[in-house]
Amino acid sequence: MRDMRLIAIADDHAMLRKGLEVVINMFPNHQVLFTASDGEDLIRQLNPEQLPDIVLMDISMPGKDGYQTTEYLKEHFPGIRVLALSTLESETAIIKMIKHGAKGYILKDADPSELKVAFDEIMSKGSYYNELITQKVMQSINQLVDDKNPLPTFARLTEREIQFLKLACSEKTYQQIAKEMFVSERTVDGYRDALFRKLEVTTRVGLVMFAIRNRLVQI
């Protein structure tokens, strides 16, 4: 079994790619296999005989963007783990990348030590998220699905809460969700706050992760 972790970088900024390559190659047992300027370039360079373990994927790229490329990898190379890389901090961007198959999310201005932690956790735990999804949230989500036990938390959700939860996994704003459910925005806020308490999460992304793990939405 090889000990070296192979990393690919997809980003349309040449200086950032080079900088990341230098930093990653300094990590013990990490090596940048190749870099790519966009999704299409990344796909062209994939060699089935030596695939990267992790792709550090920029979200906003010309041509095939991070969402499209991540979805392609999930379908054709499911063993490759995607760590989304972006300047965006919006929950919508995170949710969209998760739904397209990303296993983690890190900001471009993160400290190199956080990037190393992200690589370690994606390989050992299967996922990594920064402070936008706290460790407590991830632990509670991971404990929600147990093959030996039913899901008492899930059983306590009302039909309307489940409907809201599914809509929260879309790119709709809370205002748009309220219109689709034919309720006021205040009522939608009530559904959200109730789910936060019941599921022990603190962000919309946490709600999405719960829905994905319990197969309430397809990704």
From TrEMBL:
Keywords: DNA-binding, Phosphoprotein. The modification 4-aspartylphosphate is found at D58. SMART domains: HTH_LUXR, REC. Gene3D superfamilies: 3.40.50.2300. Pfam families: GerE, Response_reg. Residues 6-123 form the Response regulatory domain. Residues 150-215 form the HTH luxR-type domain. InterPro entries: CheY-like_superfamily (IPR011006), NreC/VraR/RcsB-like_REC (IPR058245), Sig_transdc_resp-reg_C-effctor (IPR016032), Sig_transdc_resp-reg_receiver (IPR001789), Tscrpt_reg_LuxR_C (IPR000792), WalR-like (IPR039420). This is Response regulator transcription factor. It comes from Chitinophaga rhizophila.
